[in-house]
Amino acid sequence: VDYRAVVHQVGAGEVAGKVDEILRNHDCRSVVISPDLPDDVRPGELDPTVDDGLSAYDLDKLDAVVTTSAVGIARTGTIVLDHTDGQARRALSLVPDVHVCVIRADQVVTSVPQATAVLRPSVEQGRPLTWISGPSATSDIELNRVEGVHGPRNLEVILVR
Q1: How many CA atoms within 13 Å lie on the side-chain side of 50?
Q2: Is 152 within 8 Å of 101 (Cβ atoms)?
Q3: What radius of gyration, in Å, describes the C-alpha atoms of the chain?
Q4: What are the pLDDT digits (tens) for 87-98?
Q5: 78 by DSSP, 3-state: which?
């Protein structure tokens, strides 16, 4: 919340419906997903584009991406993707304007050291990690905040209880 992400808490059977609601609220007409996104997370109202190595140019034409996540950190409000199991390749989480990220409550740890312990196998296997603490943002020389420069302007997290 401190980083302007929107967090929704839902039950296990409510995820796909919440994904559809979020995409509607952002007026999304297109969404991209990884081929291994679980069925219970897939949007039902939009016919998703399944990534088969889309170029950055092609990804830029899509409104949103839906992913899962590897771990969440309660103290910092950070979610981490290691780009396995429905998390998509890194470009998908960085190019579309809306990122809908699903995380289960049992994937949330308290601190960064606990998260790094969870992520250790991914690091040892050489997987990239994407640490996300809200929509992409930066500040110019006059400290004016600008969102969406280096990634999605909108981050919507679905926490599955």
Answers
A1: 7
A2: no
A3: 15
A4: 999 999 889 999
A5: strand
How far, in whole angstroms, is CA 37 from its chain's centroid?
12
CA dihedral 44, 51, 67, 148 (to 10 degrees): -110
Given a contact cutoff of 8 angstroms between Cβ atoms, the answer to whether 69 and 79 are in contact is yes
Which residue matches tokens 């919340």? 1
DSSP state of 151: S
In three-state secondary structure terms, 34 is coil
Q: What is the spatial distance between Cα 147 and Cα 119, in angstroms, rounded to a whole number? A: 28
Structure token pair of residue 43 = 């949007």
Check whether 147 has a pLDDT greater than 80: no
> 10 Å Cβ neighbour count for 108?
16
Q: How far apart are CA 101 and CA 90, in angstroms?
A: 13
Q: Where are the alpha helices (DSSP H) in 9-55?
A: 15-25
Cβ(74)–Cβ(80) below 8 Å: no
| pLDDT beyond 90 at 133 | no
Q: At 87, is the secondary structure helix, strand, or coil?
A: coil
